Amino acid sequence: MQILSFIGFTILVAVIAYIATRKTNENSSDGYFLGGRSLTAGVIAGSLLLTNLSTEQIVGLNGAAFESGLSVMVWETLAAVAMIVTAVFLLPRYLRGGLTTVPQFLEKRFDVTTKTLTSGLFLTGYVVVLLPVILYSGALAISGMFNVSELLGVTHTQAIWICVWGIGIIGSIYAIFGGLKAVAVSDSINAIGLLVGGILIPIFGLMAIGDGSMMDGLTILTTEHPEKFKSMGGPTDPVPFYTIFTGMMLVQLFYWGTNQQIIQRALGAKNLKEGQKGLLLASFIKILGPIIVVLPGLIAFHLFNGSLENPDDAYPMLVNKVLPAPLVGFFAAVLFGAILSSFNSVLNSSVTLFGIDIYKQHINKEADEKTVVKYGKTFGIILAIAAMFIAPMIANAGSLFAYLQEINGIYSIPILTIIVVGFLTKRVPAISAKVGLFSGCLLYIISQFVLQPFFINSALEKAAASGIVDEAALALIKAQAYPHFLDIMALLFVLNVGIMLLIGKWKPREKDYVQEYTKQVNIAPWKYVHQVGIAICLLVLAVYIYFA
């Protein structure tokens, strides 16, 4: 029954996506990469949310909440503010320039080499980090839900390989052969299912705690574990509160405002008004995100007495424990849709970056749009296969969500730096962007993978020599031995901006940069964008004050 409902819902989504996209001309760049610039607010919001909300998010954040409490909700709530900044400041500039990819702006603002380097950084991060993490975390969830190893009579490792390749192949079909519109439409359907299913998990979980009463369950949970319900993280938490004012906002701005896999949904808007409404709708729903990606982790902490060996097991175990059997297949299908969404969204963005920024620019400048799409798809197949081979090899990477965020810093802050400087200045030259990219990547790698292990190991050795064995004391020593990676991001952002501005002062462009208006879409803003944006920001502030 569970498998039948899983297969049935998955096929239903695929059929609806096919019917909705069969008339889109996908032999053109706009048709394939941007859904014909026809996406409306609801489709954009649904696609944004589901592209973001996948197993590495649901499993990883609930695992972090199981371990550290409510403070990890900052990854969700602060995203709302970043989306508002994107809607008000960045999206009008992107659509005015008729951009298909973010690096296209860098070509116009700086030069072709800057665009190519940035596209290369995006693609490297996608294939080495993001795609494998999505595949591996998804394989863990699906394998655990259906007990694939027992079902097929294989080992746990073999089950992971089977699930990785299953997800990868189906996701590739959506992304490579369907284009952005197929991805966005299937995202929107799955987003509804994920919201419904995601909310049912904490409801059934609270009812399990409260002997059938959800409110009694919530009262028991908050009364017995008040230390878990604090919005402000301490020094040993994954996200100390003060980092909201250092690197956290920068990470959110990069992710929601400049990351190709995300912003591509808004770039496909039929006009600026629809794009802004889509971003603001998604930002409002994002405030409710902790109900799906944080609260279940707290419920699992209570139900399993805080004693799980691996915190990332909290969510799958909770689903199996509290969800009625008839709903498991449906929820697994929705979760499968979320996994596919993140995978095929990243893959579609990779195909876009390669086709537009590398193949057309450097390999075949005379290629027509049909040829660009064809070779973009070929590259996507190669990328997907590479990611499927890499994914099972990250089994020992530790906390998937923390690993993903820290590794992403290698390219996220350098790219954000040159985009911000590019938009806010007119005379900073192309050489400064290249220096900013190189210095940002190099300094972050040295900081996190050379200096951080050295200082932490030295501090722990001194603690051992002093006879300190208490786990809480060791965690505090470790946290204080080296700055948090979000602090490092903020420091490097300021340093890189300073370097770029100094180069601009020393050797400025000959002429001021002026962005052209291509008139591909109407860029009249939504008249309520500022009022709604302010209201959502106040709502985020109220959530923090309430839980503080």
**Could you state the CATH homologous superfamily?**
Sodium/glucose cotransporter
Helix content: over 70%
The oligomerization state is single chain
CATH topology tier name: Sodium/glucose cotransporter
CATH architecture identity? Up-down Bundle
Q: CATH top level?
A: Mainly Alpha
Class from secondary-structure proportions: mainly alpha
State the end-to-end CA separation: 44 Å
Overall number of structural domains: 1
Query: The biggest beta sheet, please?
Result: none
Quick one: overall form?
A: globular
Over all CA atoms, what is the radius of gyration?
Answer: 23 Å
Poorly predicted spans: 25-35
Tally of DSSP β-strands: 0
Chain-averaged pLDDT? 81
Q: Name the helix and strand elements from N-terminus to C-terminus, one letter apiece.
A: HHHHHHHHHHHHHHHHHHHHHHH
